[in-house]
Structure prediction request, 619 residues.
Amino acid sequence: MVLKKGQGDDGPISLAKEVEVFRDPSGKVTMNDIVSNPDKYSFVREDIRSFERYSDDTLWIRVSLQQEIGTPIDWVMQIFPGWIDEVEMYCVYPDGKISTNKMGDQHSFSERDIQSSIMAFPLIVDSASRIHYFRVKTHGLTILDLNLWQKSRFEKVELKRSLFFSAFTGAIAVMVLMNLIFWKWTKDGDFFIYSLFLVIMLGAVFAVQGYSSSLFFPDNPVYADRFVDATTCALMSIAAIFVCRFFNYRDYSAWAARFMYLAAAVFFLAVILSMLGVIENSIKWLLYLEIFVGIFNTVFVGWVIFRRKAFYQLLAAFIFFVVNSSWLFYSMVLLGVVRLEQSFVTESLIQFTQLANLTILNIAVVSRSRQSELRVRAERKRAFNSMKVAKIALEERVRQREFVAILSHEFRTPLAIIDAVAQALGLSPSGHDERVKRSVEKIRKATRRLTTLVENILLDDALEAGARSTSRSFDLWCAIENVRNVGLPDEHARLNVSAPQRPVIFEGDQEKIEMAIRNLLLNAIKYSPTDSMVDVQCEVSSNFFNVTVSNKGNPIPESERGELFERYFRGGNSSLVPGSGLGLHISRTIMRRHGGDVVLVSSNGTGTVFRLTLPLLSQ
Prediction:
């Protein structure tokens, strides 16, 4: 190949189609063998970029170079990619002398003639034609290309690369610090994961760009070579975890989250195996897995956005799609699915991709932090509103307790005095008069009704406040008798009570139990004809004490049955019946506090049936 004037001024010259290649499957052919017997080894012109990506053959590449007059003589031969294990360059001079230069991941960085992360050899190209041989030996992934640079141009590009990666490192450091601060403030683990992702991405980019030899393992080329695979696998692992957490996979699909964590575990295992040197040729299968995971993520995130209506993540999803597409494209370039005419474009693509990814990923993270801030503000606002509601409720509760205290003091005492005076009037000589006797009965009946109302209000307030009950053992049959004879002195004649002949012992608050039974019986009496009886059936069944109360009243409408036990509820049939709407509510509340219940059994044209149940200790 003759280098013409002006060629290479703007960029590298690809020699991919200008070379001849000989494959050495045995790996035993030497330069002396080729020089001493050139006819034995047939070099064939072919494009080295079309080679099989995972061949372990040793490749001999031959190219002849000379220049036109006026063309620079100082050139640099770049071997792409930078992770090739071993490259030997031989230059055959017209007098038969052979110069040798060796480099690669199997040679330390200090041995390089050009101290650059790019794998490159210095060349002198003059008007005399010289044949250059390159012996290339590597393992695993290989995208082979030769690029010829003018030395001055190469130095400028190398300076730009150094400046770019210095700025890139600084930007990563700032982003890591910022996300760690966000993590500390918000306690959101996604920011920590993203910080870790940025650090690993920085290491992977430096490794792929050839900096693992110069920065991390300058005297240990073997580990520098393995570090490329290890950081790539580590990036795949942390990326799988980051995407899974960033888009809340677990909230939408448990199996999708498990798949992502399984993929992360596989990639993490590959990190260990890479550093041990046992994965080498298997890296391509990990790239296939990365492509599959990338496609899966694209489909799943799209499903989350459009099928699950998670439009608040639309911006983050778009950014993820752009970043993910760039990685998929680069992976397919490495696998040979996508071919580029100029391999140096691949290196430029890496730089551009990382810069673009850094920019747009930061936009996504900032958007995420903004959403987190908005959620925190919304939660604070809800908490503040809840506090306001709780404060208002507390104030209302205080006023209610004050009212109840006033009710207890101002109503109960006068009612007791009125009842005592009426009772004394009934026992006086004037009480023998029929008109006085009827008036006294009306007064005492009204007094008892108001007293019952006050007691129900006080009891409901105590139940709502969670007041502790006094618990002791007592006979439920005696409680029934107390309610009939003492609690309902005017109505007991209308009660037809059937009860067991033996004691039924229960442990609980006897006063409240009697109040619950009294309210249930009083409710049945009030809503039945005055000339009818109310049946009260008491029985023990399956360690439960059941009190079934039946009357002959009008049926309860279906629309009202669901609200019967609500506080202050009164049905349409109760407009002419005095009451507060607390009786059934209090009865059920007391029973449930004791492990029992009050239920409506039936209500039809023949009457209404309620049942009260209490659990008994094993007899």
About this structure: The chain has three domains: 2-153, 155-384, 470-615. The mean pLDDT is 79. The longest strand covers residues 58-67.
